[in-house]
Design brief:
The structure is a single chain. By secondary structure, the protein is of the alpha+beta class. It has one domain: CBS-domain, CATH 3.10.580.10. The chain has 8 helices and 5 strands. The strands form 2 sheets. The protein has a 3-stranded antiparallel sheet with strand order 1-2-3. Strands 4-5 form a two-stranded antiparallel ribbon. A hairpin with a 5-residue loop joins β4 and β5. α4 runs parallel beside α6. The radius of gyration is 16 Å and the shape is globular.
Amino acid sequence: MLAKDVMTKSVVACTPWDTAQTAAKLMKAHDVGAIPVVWDMTDPLVEGIVTDRDLCCAVIADAKKGDSIRVSELMTPVPVTCQPECTIEECEELMQENQVRRIPVVDDRGRCVGIVALADIAQHARAEQVATTIKEICKPAKEDKRAPIKRDYLDEQTHEEDQVLLLNRRRELRREAEVSR
């Protein structure tokens, strides 16, 4: 079975310039725990992902006002993604390796076409495999050895340059994952 067979196709998204409050309202209204952050709603190039945990840790735990924090300040930039033709086993592998519960599904150009959640996989995969995935996701976080991403890159590049940078970063992350196997 493929990601395109199990993914949620009607994805709710926000932009890096939306507020944390906007993201939280979208999550509540659509009963989701994460939303992709896209460059533009009409051209949904995936820039990041923001989760309910991001909101909780960055806004509530620090007693900040949700209407004064931009999503770009708390999103995970360049998230782990998959393509529609990835198998659910490959999705599980990505979830395990990166300790994430949701993966945006992107087309060849990096545009969001869906999202695969652990719950989607749980409905279609073998119970033993789902249990293994949950066990791996819940392990203590691994040290992040990647170089930090510049926060001000959004202001310095054109949209096309941003797209190239994101696609190159995804390729780099995939290569790093293959080398560490």
